[in-house]
Every structure is written in structure tokens, then in C-alpha cells.
């Protein structure tokens, strides 16, 4: 259940990111509202998998670089992960489109910010 909530949170954050960052768009396979929502959910699912598998591996291997740069390298890594999701979804013929590396870095920054804010709202209380 928690994974589904995280996917929905990332999908909503991705939608808000595409509204704010012009270099990041999502292309659905059809021009229907249902196809658009399903595309956002699918891209969020792919992003979750890539972040969990590839992102975790990179964070473990590059830990010294994270320490040296005080974590600022995470912006670059998250931008590259967003470009990887763009490549994977491009293989399917629809999904995330990122214009360039720097749009990916900005998109990852905005996506992370929106995910964090929405996660604060959706997170259940500990009471």
C-alpha cells in the first residue's frame, strides 16, 4: 500500500513539474484523460524502480564524492536518473521527455521538492 501511495505522490509531483519546467514533458500514448493519467503513473513507477535500483547503487559507490561535495552531486545524479527514465520511456514510444541534461537537473530538483511537499501532506500522523 505504501508503494502505491509513493507512486501516486511522484506522479502528481511529476505532473506539477511538467507544468513548471518547460524542458520536461510527458507524452501519453493517446490524447485521452485516462491515458494521460496512466502515463504519469507508469512514468512514476519507472522512476521509482530506476531510483531504487540504479540510484541506490550509484549512491553507495559514489559515497566519497557525496561527502566531498557535501551532497551537491545528488542534483547531478538525480538529473541523470531522470534522463535514464526518459530513455527507458522513449523505448516504449511514450512517456517522459527531457530536452537536455540541465533541464533534467532542474526537473529532478523541482520533482524532488514537489514530492517532498506532497509527502508531508499525505504522510499519516504518528499519533
From TrEMBL:
Q: Does the keyword Transmembrane helix apply?
A: yes
**What InterPro entries does the entry give?**
Phage_holin_4_2
Keywords for this protein: Membrane, Transmembrane, Transmembrane helix
Transmembrane portions of the chain: 39-58, 65-89, 101-122
Q: Which domain of life is it from?
A: Bacteria
| UniProt xrefs under Pfam families | Phage_holin_4_2
Could you tell me what this protein is called?
Phage holin family protein
